[in-house]
Automatic annotation (TrEMBL):
Domain SsuA/THI5-like: 70-274
Secretion signal span: 1-30
Keyword Signal found: yes
Name of the protein: Myristoyl transferase
Organism: Paenibacillus rhizosphaerae
Keywords assigned: Signal, Transferase
Pfam families referenced in this protein's UniProt entry, alphabetically: NMT1 (PF09084)
GO biological process: thiamine biosynthetic process
GO terms for MF: transferase activity
Entry-linked InterPro entries: NMT1/THI5, SsuA/THI5
Keyword Signal: yes
Superkingdom as given in the UniProt entry: Bacteria
Length: 351
């Protein structure tokens, strides 16, 4: 930011020179009289001494796992309410997208923190990317399979004989096909478009409980959802991570980030409509009504389960080991590594 210059620069210099002369004269007179000049007393309403400088904030960046949305509400609340600043961080939230890899960006050192799903972190570590989960904003993934209510779908075991728009290599789908013996499903590539799903009342599509159902209901399509977490594939979603190096060299910074983020989520829980306009500024394609819907749908996924007692962000060894085992069974992971290397809860606020 450009520094502003005053118009009366010469006058200021002249006044400073006169003041200096006055000070010198006062000292000389005091020396001649054998007396020490009395210190100036502060006038009414003025503080004595030098005002303490503002603490310097440390720049930091968080790479989101998608464009700004209520799934990042806790982070926007922490920015908006000054929780990151209070923790000594000048935090920048960088949007993700289909071509953005948060794991690669953080691993390269271009950002301190990122967001990814638990299975993505396990796969990244297998590929030699030394990242570590430090908090989970979602205890359950918001990912769902969406179906037309007239199709009569009751459970994951009912999918045989139906067309499913899904990413064929998605870990949850590989697990689901194996567990429920889905060998008679017509797999169709998921592209993000809902047109073909809408036109086929017998079809299902992958999506998120926080977004697609809202869009479909607005179009008058009567849909139901199956939460992926209820299939048995219950990973942590929207997991905050950093590098092993950051944890080793800057643990205080990691702790400051985690604690401020948890504080942000606690605030967003009761003040979502206050924070959503800030999210809308970064993602104007998502209107405020949809953001309200998304925030309402995600609350149980963020604050339920272990988070109900242990607080937002908590994770357990058992949950990580379970997902790791499932990924090995479907061939996504080759071998298990100690999950103590994969995640840590040491930076979460004590409960």
């Amino acid at each position: 930011m450009a520094t502003k210059m005053t118009a009366n620069k010469r006058s200021v210099k002249k006044m400073m020179a006169l003041s200096l002369c006055a000070v010198l004269m006062t000292g000389m007179l005091a020396a001649c009289s054998g007396k020490t000049a009395a210190p100036e007393t502060a006038s009414s309403g003025e503080k004595t001494g030098t005002a303490s400088a503002e603490p310097k904030l440390e720049k930091s960046t968080l790479v989101l796992n998608w464009f700004a949305e209520p799934e990042h509400g806790g982070n926007f609340a922490a920015v908006q309410q000054g929780f990151y600043k209070d923790a000594g961080l000048d935090m920048t939230l960088t949007p993700g997208g289909p071509q953005v890899s948060s794991t690669q960006i953080v691993a390269s050192g271009k950002a301190d923190f990122g967001i990814a799903n638990g299975d993505d972190i396990l796969v990244a570590r297998q590929e030699g990317i030394p990242i570590v989960a430090i908090a989970a904003s979602f205890q359950k993934s918001p990912q769902v399979l969406i179906y037309h209510k007239e199709a009569g779908i009751q459970d994951f075991s009912n999918l045989n004989g139906h067309a499913v728009y899904v990413a064929p290599t998605a870990s949850f789908w590989l697990y689901m096909k194996s567990k429920y013996e889905l060998d008679q499903v017509k797999e169709l590539k998921y592209t993000g478009s809902l047109v073909n799903f809408v036109n086929d009342p017998n079809a299902l599509t992958q999506g998120y409980i926080t977004s697609e159902p809202y869009t479909l209901e607005k179009q008058g399509v009567n849909v139901g959802t199956l939460l992926i977490a209820d299939s048995g594939y219950n990973l942590y979603a929207n997991v905050y991570f950093t590098t092993e190096k950051m944890i080793k060299e800057h643990p205080d910074k990691v702790k400051a980030f985690v604690e401020a983020t948890v504080k942000g989520w606690d605030y967003y829980k009761s003040h979502a409509e206050e924070i959503n306009p800030a999210i809308h500024e970064q993602n104007p394609d998502m209107d405020l009504d949809m953001m309200k819907y998304s925030a309402e749908k995600e609350m149980d996924l963020v604050f339920s389960g272990d988070a109900a007692e242990q607080g937002v962000g908590t994770m357990t060894k058992e949950r990580w080991e379970e997902v790791q085992k499932q990924l090995i069974e479907v061939g996504v992971l080759k071998e298990a590594e100690p999950v103590a290397n994969v995640f840590t809860t040491e930076f979460l606020p004590a409960k």
